[in-house]
Amino acid sequence: MTKKAKSSIFIVIISAVLLAIIGCSSASSQVEDKKKDTTVTVVKKDPDPTPSPTPTPLVDMEEGTYDINEMPLFAIEGTDYTPFSLELEKISAVTEDGTPVEINEDDPEETEDVDTEASDADTEGEESKEDDTDEEDEESEESDEEKQKIYNTYKVVLKSGLKFPDGSTVTADDVMFNIKAHAARDYKGDFELGELDIPGMREYHTQIPEETRELVETIINAGGFDIEEGKYPEIEGVDPKLQDEIWACYDEAGLIFARNIIDHVNSNYALNAYVNAFMSGYLTYAKVEASDSLKTAFAYIVWGYGRKKNPYNYRKNTLTTISDKVYELNEVELTEMDFWEEIKEYYKGDLSDEGIDNDVAPGTPTIEELIAQVYFEKQDYSVENIKGILKGTTFDEKIGTDRECIFITISDDEDINDFNFFLTNPKEYEKTSTLNDPEVIIEIDDEEEGEEGEEGEESDEDSEGENTEGEGES
After folding, report:
1. CB 127 within 8 A of CB 121
2. pLDDT grade, residue 227 (50/70/90)?
3. Contact assessment for residue 176 and residue 80, using Cβ atoms and an 8 Å cutoff
4. Are 242 and 234 in contact (CB under 8 A)?
5. In the list 53, 191, 334, 341, which could disulfide-bond 296, CB 3.0-4.6 Å?
6. In whole angstroms, what is the distance from residue 117 CA to residue 108 CA?
7. Residue 178 has pLDDT above 70, yes or no
8. Is 66 in the same domain as 195?
């Protein structure tokens, strides 16, 4: 909340306290309790649900006849689903700038032994100060190297002989179709791929070419039309007409910015105590909620855009703003655009964190992000492929023929196991527009859990089991 808002809050709280001393002791305690919540909203959380199943790639799965509708790309731990992938292999790794990285094939057990020995040595204090200095230098060098994100490329080999329920053969094209369907912007299921750090995934998921996104962000960051100079800031290689098109979205974005504040205030301060403190002791939130003008006026005052002293007059039903504008709410409708114009005027168009973005509602986009968002929605882009996902073939020496496979390049910050989904026949999808996302239920092994044997732990396990039954989908 801004300094303006804090100042307003201080004044109205003092007024509320005086009213409480006169005779509203019970209301006073309620207001005091709510005042504590003005900066932090405490939400009672339900018990943590059973964790979603973690897919585990399996290598060299036995081939056979399966129902492809019940087969994910990778096996899913805790279930009996058989994957339609035959094997998974990491074939290369590069840094962000394309520099090849040697694939680490060290035995995990050996690595653990080394870590244990190092830990023991540290505990016993056997290493000298010189050794410590050398280690710090090495760690520093390793830290610099780790700053470069690494992208690993995996080859996922498909089983042969896979068929859809209608008898048609499953191909790599069908798998690619399903990948794109699960990566689409409007997909909201349990196997969402669109947020994974894969080259080209952001472009496909948002349908905005990355070069265009960067250009728009450059134009917005450079600033809008300079009235004194009579022109836009000069950006090498950028047509001022494009700048004009982008900045034409400014007020439309501002309208959303103001609406986000209004919604936030009326969601988090929807109590009589707040209305009494900020607006009038004669007003209830039910009356505020029933009027769009009062909801906007409420947001004005809470966010620090009302006059410091008595911004709302209950008898006259008027709002006086921080810029001394007076709105007679019996005569005019106070709108989101009025609020946006007030914000614009106060900050003189400054879009920085010290400017308009100082007033952004928590958890909502900045004004710059909204301008870009509005502009992109007016365009007609088409991104058809994902750069980091390709189809191909690989020779299988065991059977002496080629197999179809998928190549996936993904950041080492991501877990390849999260790249999982069930197949849908593209022909079926054309009819239903529905993807095959079966429920994945994790069963807890009571025998394993019961080995601990303590009553308290058994009680916790029973509780966890109940949560599992209610969880249904991953």
Report:
1. yes
2. confident
3. no
4. no
5. 334
6. 14
7. yes
8. yes
Range(s) of the domain holding residue 226: 208-247
Per-residue confidence (pLDDT) for residue 148, from 0 to 100: 83
On whether residue 349 sits in a domain, the answer given is: yes
Q: Which helix (H) or strand (E) holds 376?
A: helix 367-377
Euclidean distance between CA atoms 265 and 288, whole angstroms: 12
Q: By CB neighbour count within 10 A (0-12 exposed, 13-18 middle, 19+ buried), where does 112 fall?
A: exposed
Does the pLDDT value for residue 295 go beyond 80? Answer: yes
Burial profile 173-199: b = 16 or more Cβ within 10 angstroms, e = fewer: ebbbbbbbbbbbeebeebbebbebebb
Q: Which long-range contacts (CB under 8 A, 24 or more apart) does 16-25 make?
A: 16/276, 16/277, 16/281, 19/276, 19/281
The pLDDT value given to residue 441: 72
Q: How many helices (H) and strands (E) does the chain have?
A: 17, 9
Query: What whole-number distance in Å separates Cα of residue 38 and Cα of residue 36?
Result: 6
- How far apart, in whole angstroms, are the C-alpha atoms of residue 210 and residue 178? 23
Q: How far apart are CA 113 and CA 117, in angstroms?
A: 6
Task: Provide mean pLDDT across the span 148-161.
Answer: 92
Pairing relation of β-strands 75-76 and 55-56?
A: antiparallel
The total number of structural domains that make up the chain: 3
As a whole number of angstroms, the distance between CA 216 and CA 305 comes to 31
Alpha-carbon torsion angle 119, 123, 124, 128, nearest 10: 80
Q: Which one has a higher pLDDT value, 468 or 19?
A: 19
**Amino acid letter for position 144:** D
Question: What's the CA angle centered on 107, arms 103 and 113, to 5 degrees?
Answer: 125
Q: Is residue 306 part of a domain?
A: yes
Structure tokens at 361: 């509602």
Give me 141's structure tokens. Answer: 């060098």
| DSSP one-letter code for 471 | H
Q: What is the pTM of this model?
A: 0.65
Asked if residue 443 belongs to a domain, the reply is no
Residue 471 falls inside a structural domain: no
| Structural tokens at position 176 | 């690619």
